[in-house]
Amino acid sequence: MVYISNAWVAKVRRQAVNEVLFGKVTPAQVARKYGVHRATIGKWLKRAHEGKRMYIDTRSSRPHTHPQQLSPDMVNRVIQLRKRMHRCAPVLHAILQKEGVTISLSSIERILRKYKLTRKKKKLQSPHTQIERPLVTFPGDLVELDTIHFVKSDYSRFFIYAAIDLYSRMGYAEFQPRLSASHSFYVVKRTHTYFHFPIKLIQTDNGAEFSEQLYWNLKTVGIQLRHTRVGRPNDNAHIERFIRTIQEECFGSKLPKEHHMKETLQEYITYYNSSRPHLALNCQTPSDIVAKVLK
What we know:
CATH topology of the largest domain: Nucleotidyltransferase, domain 5
Mean pLDDT: 89
Number of helices: 11
Largest sheet: 5 strands, mixed
Number of strands: 5
Strand order of the largest sheet: 3-2-1-4-5
Strand content: 5-15%
């Protein structure tokens, strides 16, 4: 039987041994039943404990020795040198070379990692990663923000910022020729003005345009920033669907004309918020929801 890490194999070995010891079955018959060589059954018999219920565990496939294995004296020399000098692996490697000791740099690094003699850099946790996703009970409690990237035939790009409020599904979008944290901040301010209700929390992905600078800029106007988990686009599912709606309904799933982008977006956003029925709102419009809440 090939090496396997299945936890139930230890029980199967015990069952095979028990059939030989107590079932009056020959090792050859048991080997044919379990699909292994009869010599394997013999090895299991040697390893089997006297107790009928003691499993025969899987042994490690790691070799006991290696022709190029470092000697214990060499390993101890690296460890003592590290503890005495507190220097990194390249420095230790250079010192040992001057002493006439033949050892590779990778071997020194491996020894330091194995005996936990390396220092790992502590990653500073961004303050916006500590904010939990709120329970949305009012317009502005959580607004998702993202960008649409368009690539022209000459490989140049232009962009659209899109934002949506989770409670009212009120949407906003605007054209921008470039992306940056500063542009993102001014887009949030214009979104705040357009919505006519205060925004408490902005949620974005981990793009460069939503970096630490945006967090501190938003803090000056009393808005918090929260980032989604890396590789989890479903955390921003509402804005992802809103972006798809813009691409399909506003631009017909085609590359829009940059010169008419601003006017086209303004017309569509007005239609989206005031005239387009929304299934999630029982076929009401986002403007109807906002009007009911803020009246």
